[in-house]
Amino acid sequence: MKRNILFLLISLLVLSSCEDLFEPAIENMKDIDLMYSNPQYAQGVLVSGYRFLPDAYGNTEYATDDAVTNEINNSYLKMATGSWTASNNPVSAWNNSYGAIQYVNTFLENCDKVEWDEDEEAAELFNMRLKGEAYGLRGLYMYNLLKNHAGFSSNGELLGIPIVTSPQNVNSDFNQERATFQACVDQIITDLNYAIDYLPEEYVSVYSLDEVPEKYKSMVTSYGTYNRTMGDYFRQLIDGQIAKAFRSRVALLAASPAFQDGSNTTTWEDAAKYSADVLNYIGGISGLDPQGVTFFNNQTELNNVNEGINPDEILWRTSKSETSDEEEDNYPPSLFGKGKMNPSQNLVDAFPDKDGYPITHGSSAYVDTDPYANRDPRLSYYIIYNSNIEGVSDAAIFTGSDSGTDDGINVLETSTRTGYYMKKRMRMDVNYNNSNGSWQKKTSYTPRIRYTEMFLNYAEAANEAYGPMGIAPNASYSSVDVIRAIRKRALDISSDPYLDECAGDKDKMRELIQNERRLELCFEGFRFWDLRRWKEDLATTVKGFDVSTGEEFDVESRSYSDYMNYGPIPFSECLKYDKLVQNKGWE
């Protein structure tokens, strides 16, 4: 943490040009006091907090039973195969999150003194919005720290991370104990509630005073003042819906099996309530985007994204850009890609048949001699399997070891190791042919939060709290209702007999919800964290399938121990600070 504080102090002492490099004129040194009279500088301190946002996808699938990578030196591959230690932790959130929190705390301590605008109404609204963003960001980063580093100490105590809510300097005492897990959850919820109170649900400009959200009406006499402080221009910054979504995430994490303990009072009821708070804003189940299952390849929709507006499936996203990064990394070799993400046979087997039955069910239409026929359409949306027609040239992709093409198993360093390539996350109208100069870029973005995740959060929590057919007090839909809507969208079925079969059994419903979450959110960075919070086996061997032989084969073993359901505190931090207790197993 200390190095992050020093980094911030250096960043805040911005040096302008001067004649004497070693003795700069005093007016060229900018410090915290400048925040009070320079709102742009003050806002820059908060904007620095956004710089540490984690990657929206992350590729942690490489460390799960859903995929492997052909990058032999990939850090997640090494982690999954025995190199994960407290000093070598590729999923650590420690330095970045505490660095961001330092910026946020510095802003919160000083923002009320800033002269935000000459107009008093605008100044009050600017401060209100920016303060709400700051609380939302602190809740976000504390959630990431908790997800990555909470766990049980060797004496059985469920611990979180040190709670830091004021700015630190070089004279601060950095030797702080970890707070309890519950204290961390409480702090995160408090911060997110502040954000929700201060911020609008979304940043939307209005055209009359009547349209100004109720909580701001007494503060403005001109709707133009509201627009320039809370309007369209601020889209994709933290808003009320984003804060509510993180409240759903932290409650789901805390209610999960891995964190069940007498000291933890967060319940599945809490998680269901917070998730419903997000969904009610879009009308509940009626707000589920019919096209959301292929959000990444809805080409007309992607081409028309502008002005920070979100498609119906997306709650929060990165800025749009003209890129072909995903295609470069993950197209098969014959499409000039590097084929990095190789889905597993384990994941392929998780896709049901066209009617929604698991492929092992007695009523399934699955036939093992034609394994890709009569399957859930999501299989062909998300995974490239043998004989798929892909790319701008409608080329067949042949993945068997005897295919005679570069797309076959282990033919090149960029070829698949499993017999599959990832298709999700990519636009299939990108021509990434960098050999003849026709390399193309297309508009894309990365979702930070999809509404489908929030529906799945609710389904999981509501099933645990109220059973498959029960309904949270602030909702009008059950777990079964949500999963029925998700599967109807995916499978285009008028009836769902397998869901009906599960609807009377909480345990079977749990399995179905977990599987739907696996499918809907595959390759989006969820599987690794879900397995750990569910206390499921991380050490499942990854399987592949060779169509040339018709046989499954082992691709990569996993080397995890049970204590790895909880990530380590960085070894370097424990060496420096004796009050910082390590999680059990990582000592």
UniProtKB/TrEMBL annotation:
Domain RagB/SusD residues, every copy: 324-586
Primary localisation category: membrane
SusD-like N-terminal domain segment(s): 61-206
Protein's UniProt name: RagB/SusD family nutrient uptake outer membrane protein
A GO term from the CC aspect: cell outer membrane
Extent of the signal sequence: 1-19
Region of interest: Disordered: 319-339
Claim: Chloroplast is one of the keywords in the record: no
Superkingdom: Bacteria
Compartment(s): Cell outer membrane
Keywords: Cell outer membrane, Membrane, Signal
Keyword Signal: yes
PROSITE patterns: PROKAR_LIPOPROTEIN
Record-stated family: Belongs to the SusD family.
